[in-house]
Structure formats: C-alpha cells, structure tokens
C-alpha cells in the first residue's frame, strides 16, 4: 500500500467520531424546443434530428437538487448511505439528510448568503454528500476542486468564482491556506475542516457544524419566491478544452435534477425496500468529476443503494474493497478496466454479485470491453457512457490536455441492448434532441455520416461564468450545444464517438481519428496501452505518431507499424514513427493527455 494511501487511511480513520454527531413538487410535461429554422443561416434539416427511442419524461420544476435527492428517503432512512472503504465510517440516509440540513443551517448562521460560492477541496469520502447537499440547503453554489491541483491552479479557479468558503480535509489544509495567502481576493474566505484530532487555528469544525439545530432556520426550497431554478447557478464545474485558463460551467438545479430524472428509466437497479438486498456501488471515480458526482451522489440515493468510497486508487486497497463488498454496481474508466482484466487476483468470484458496470470519460474499445466481459464470466449489464456532453465542460490539467468530463449526460446505452452495442454511447436520453453537423459547412448529416455532435435538452449548462464569448462559441443562437466531439449514429439511433474535433489528425487533407489507431494498437498481443498524436509534416500537413507501452519486451517498432499497415488504410499508417514509453499520460478520468505528448515531442524536436 502506498505511503500516500496510508496517510489518507490514518486521517480517514480519525473521522469515525463524526458519525456520532448528534415543498411540493410540480411536474411540467414538456420537451426541448424544436425550432426548425437556424438563425445562423446554415442549412438545417429537422427530419435528421435524433430523439430518444424512449418516451420523453415529464420535466420537474419546483424543487432544488437537495429536495429531489431526499424525496424518498423515508423508505430507507435506516440503511447505510455512504461508507468509507478505508476506515469503515458510515452514515445512514437519515443521518445524511439531517447532517446536511444542519450543515446548511450552520453555513447560513456563519454569515454566508444565497448565491455565495463554496469550494470543496476534499477526496471521495462519506462526508462529501453531506457537505454537497448542505451547500444546496443553504442556497449556496458548490464548486469542485481536484485536490491534486497546485495552489496556483486552485487560486485561479477560486478567484474567478469569488469563493467565500472552502471545505477541506486535514491533509489539504496547508494547500487551502497557501491558496488563500497568494490570493488577495480570498482574504475573508472561511475554511471548514472535516475531521482532524485537534482544532486548527482560523478554521471551522465540520463536526461541530453538523450538530447545529436546523429547526427554525429558513433553508432553501425550490418554491422560494427569490429562486429561479432554471437560471440560478447551482454548481460550478471548471473546464477549458485546449486554451486559456479554466472556465466555470454553470449548471442549474433545473439541469441537475432533470438530468437525473432523464437517466432513471435507463438504470437497471432495483429500488431498496424493507427485506430486500441493498445495492452496493463502488465510489472510486472522483466526486469532483461529473460522472462520480452525478452517478454516486445524486442517482444512487434515488434507489437507496450504498456507496463505498475510496479516496484514491491504490491497487491493494482496490482489490481488497472489491473482494470485501461484492458490489452490485461498479463505475470504471479505461485504466481501471485494463487493471481488472490484467490482474490475476480479480477473478470471477469477485464479480459474482455484479449486475451493472458503467464506463465513462473515454472510450475503452470493443476488444477491451469483450475481454472484461469474458473475465467476469456471467451476464452483466455493461454500459459504455453515459456520454457526458464534452465541450460543455472539460478540465485542462496543468501540463495541458484533457481531463474529466464535467457536464451532464446526453446519451446512454439501454439495458435492453444486452451488450450488443459495445463501443456505442447509446441513443439520446429522453427529452433530448441530438444532431450531427458537417464540421466545414454546418449542414445537418444523416445516419452513418461523421460530423460534430450537437445537443439540446434540459440538462445543458446555462453557459460559462464571466465569459459570454466562450458561451456563444459553445451554445449557438438556436440553443444547440456544440460538443466538439466527432461522431455518427446508426439507423437504430445509437451514437458512436470517434474523437475530439480539435484532436483529429489531418493527413493530406484526410481526417484520422487518434482513438481508432489507439484501439487498433491495443489489439496487438504485445501492446499494453497506446496513444497517438499528429506531428507536423511539410508535405502531408501531419503524420500519425504512436506512443506505445509494451506488454512484451520483445515488441519492435517494425512489428507495430506492420500491424497497423495490415489493418488500416494508408493515410492512417504510422508514418510519424513509434516511440516506446513506460506509461501513457492520463487524467484521473482515464482520458489520454495527448497534448502533453505532443508538446514534449515538439520541444524535443526543436
């Protein structure tokens, strides 16, 4: 077990004492607007717009996200909601509800007010949903921070959104204090610490705050006269793409609640009832990522399932947790799928109770998914996706490149597909409209034609904070969000994402998708992993270059190039060469950081 993990473990175990601390919904049945004309003047064909194969859902109005999350908890208030996989510390659904309301009351009593931003710099832990929903009960706006970021990166984010309060973890208190010290705009920022054996000067105690009596405190409700659920920002997730400082993606309560509501018909999980077996989900995907935030903090409570949290990936702890808890649902990304496939200690017995495996953030490739299904060895519902609208929110790591997708879900494979649609992100969710447009002309394309995927629906972000130009460049005047993803759909309305618009390699004017080459390379028996970028070429424009991680040390460059030549057309051959590396650089979500590789190559080529 890593030393960092031991540090996490010791601190998490010290939090066990925390567990001892003591509106009407209105449904609006409507669907996205279906205006046929395009104000941009580009030819648009509404007959080629793609809707869900499922009926539209009645959209929900009149409740905020916290109200929606806890709507049904009376059915399972005494079962465990969240449990720490390291320390065993846990909270029931009733404790989660009460403590979150108490925390919300304490925030208001501290002087914070509606619309103030609270930054969460904490790992995956059972207190995360308490702090999250408490923020919403107080009418505040949470923003989520990757704890591995530098002080400068965090300072840029917190300064941009005018953060008034930080919730953190003892291990990250020095980082939070450093951020405040280098950011004059944060001079009055409050710091709240979850856990710790001793009080920290200048910081508030989360454990004391969740003891606050919330009765008599005017906590936020969706029906409040000063609330606009469709316009007021409910969460800020920071993103970039490929240039500039990260931008704050503004999500509303309307978008968060309705995206969960859109997704519920596609989930193959039994709702908990007295006497039934409680579902169990692995909580390893980062909660600051929309997939972990939404799937594990917003959707899971709708079924009364238990989430077992891990603060980071440690191979030994990951294996032990899988064996101990026998999860019914597991959320993975490509690196974790590869680990499961290749580790001898993870056999069929570990997954005997697993009914659902969800994979997101980056395509895993058909070959890898089939190997996973073969290893599990029984009927399991594998859903690649759910597809999170990409350009709506991406996170630029400090060295450049893409990291976790941070925006709501627009597509998901249906459980009825029964693993026959491996590689697809699925059809659109109910109450969602999608089209594919030509990247040059903007013309709407039909089935099997590749272009940029554009989305309309209630789940869309409202825009970028303090950045109207970036908003206009992403959401057009007709309300279509341009994802920046290249893909196509079949006659059955199942969508396939080929690559990112900005990462396509242009070879003699022909487009080459790095992901196609990467998937092909991973099929080689001597290749463990691979990444492909385009490098400049005077005549061709660009050439594909592969970075390969060996599974077998005997692998040669010639073997790699020949393998690709035998399978793909000439403009996709690795004319830019092959380089062997120890590991492919990836973000926590599993997305390949191709920009890192390209910048390093260009620096070395000077």
TrEMBL record:
Keywords, alphabetical: Ligase, Peroxisome
Domain of life assignment: Eukaryota
Pfam families named among the record's database cross-references: AMP-binding, AMP-binding_C
Residue ranges of domain AMP-dependent synthetase/ligase in the record: 72-465
Compartmental location: Peroxisome
Listed GO MF terms: long-chain fatty acid-CoA ligase activity
Cellular component aspect of the GO annotation: peroxisome
SUPFAM superfamilies, sorted: Acetyl-CoA synthetase-like
InterPro entries named in the record: AMP-bd_C, AMP-bd_C_sf, AMP-binding_CS, AMP-dep_synth/lig_dom
Segments forming domain AMP-binding enzyme C-terminal: 516-591
A biological process term (GO) from this entry: fatty-acyl-CoA biosynthetic process
Family that this chain belongs to: Belongs to the ATP-dependent AMP-binding enzyme family.
Protein name: Putative 4-coumarate--CoA ligase 3
Organism: Folsomia candida
